[in-house]
Amino acid sequence: MSHGNMNLTLKVWRQKNTKATGKLETYKVTDISPDMSFLEMFDVLNEQLINKGEEPIAFDHDCREGICGMCSMYINGRAHGPKSAITTCQLHMRSFKDGDTIVVEPWRAAAFPVIKDLTVDRSAFDRIISKGGFISVNTGNAQDANCLPIPKPDADAAFEAAACIGCGACVATCKNSSAMLFVSAKISQLALLPQGQVERTSRAKNMVAQMDEEGFGNCTNTGACEVECPKGISLENIARMNREFFMANIKE
Amino acid sequence: MSTTSGKFLQSSLGKKLLMGLTGLFLVSFLIVHVSINACIYFNDGGATFNAAAHFMAHNPVIRVVEIGLFIGLILHAVQALMLTMQNNKARPVKYAVPAGNVSSKWYSRSMGILGSLLLLFLVVHLANFWVPTKQAVFNDMEHDTFAGLKEVFSKWYFVGVYMVGVISLGYHLLHGFQSAFQSLGLNHKKYTPMIKSFGFWFSIIITLLFASMPITMFLGLIK
Ligand code: HEM
Ligand code: SF4
Ligand code: FES
User: Fold this and answer.
1) 3-state secondary structure of B95
2) CATH of domain A6-116
């Protein structure tokens, strides 16, 4: 074992399919470099399982650089592991110590059913987006950007909200499995810009209605989502969503 | 685009709005309540306190507000129950390792339990004071509320129950006060920090004031 490398015990949620009952299985990994990402450590574990003729662990991942939002893992009681404001692929093994036991679970929410092992079905988010997370513009040449003056603070707030990558960590970490940080980011991003005004009212009503229908819980303002969100989406967005929704209901 | 939204008050955000409004309405009642109770500190054998209590028990405007208060409390508690049940259903399988206190405060996650303790306390509290006063008013008799206070707070177990109730209230408000503003959509870079610190001190001061009353009476400091 080269200097600083670690031996770890992993307890990982294994579940054959949505209907099966799952359980935590214990695995050992040895000689893990502190420079590996958490997902690379999982690759090592899966190689090990394949070599033994066992079923590898299903887990979601894609970009491995913190932009796609796929790498949903609930690690030792925290969405994306022990650090705030990062994704699992941005978590390095140097955040752990030799001999540690690490428990890895899937996102837990009625609205995010487990597909297999650590992968969950997040299409509830897509259905919310399809209810209003877009603008209707005609195709053709983009007009000159200076035709649409936008105050800098609004542009900044919209940009910050648009940073949401739809990872679902907010839902996973919320004690109520509430999706309000996600939905509020999507509503805010468009409500703040001139292009978003046409569907502003119906967007707020329809996206909130779909969120409720999907079975996400109700926000109780504990603030856990904001702490765990890899993109630093702020609770101000939830307040803005509330305003948008109240105004939309007053208007029609 | 079709409008798929259902009734406003059945939506998650509508329910939260009602929660926040009823919560703040109940807070406004606390301010009146603590002010009346503080009259015991005139230490004049309950003369000032009884005068204030008599006014509250007979003034017609207060009578109407009292009905509103009960409606507000029931709405708040029923809504709380519905939200809490829905929230439990939203996560049928729990985590093996819970998040604990790293990303949120324990009392912000315990509003349902704190509220339930409050509700239990309120049953005892109403039986102690509200029921006897009502009986007296209905029978057109004078009622010495102050004597009732002394009687109840001479018993250590009532003092204990009141401490539990008041501390639950304190933690409920510590989260609830600022939470209500967020639920109403009021979050502002400049004003939210002020609301938060006001809510913090408000919760602490109102808890200490309410807690001081049974204790000083139990110790015989109020004549
Ligand atoms: C009958 C007993 C009560 C129960 C069961 C109860 C329960 C709850 C629950 C579950 C919440 C929602 C949690 C959250 O939004 O974070 C809440 C919020 C709140 N409660 Fe109560 N509560 C009770 C009594 C009271 C009383 C007597 C007051 C005030 C003196 C109060 C003030 C508040 C406030 C200000 C909020 C915040 C509203 C919001 O976040 O939108 N509650 N309560
Ligand atoms: S708000 Fe943050 S935690 Fe929630 S889905 Fe978007 S990026 Fe992920
Ligand atoms: S794999 Fe894309 S964000 Fe982690």
Assistant:
1) coil
2) 3.10.20.30
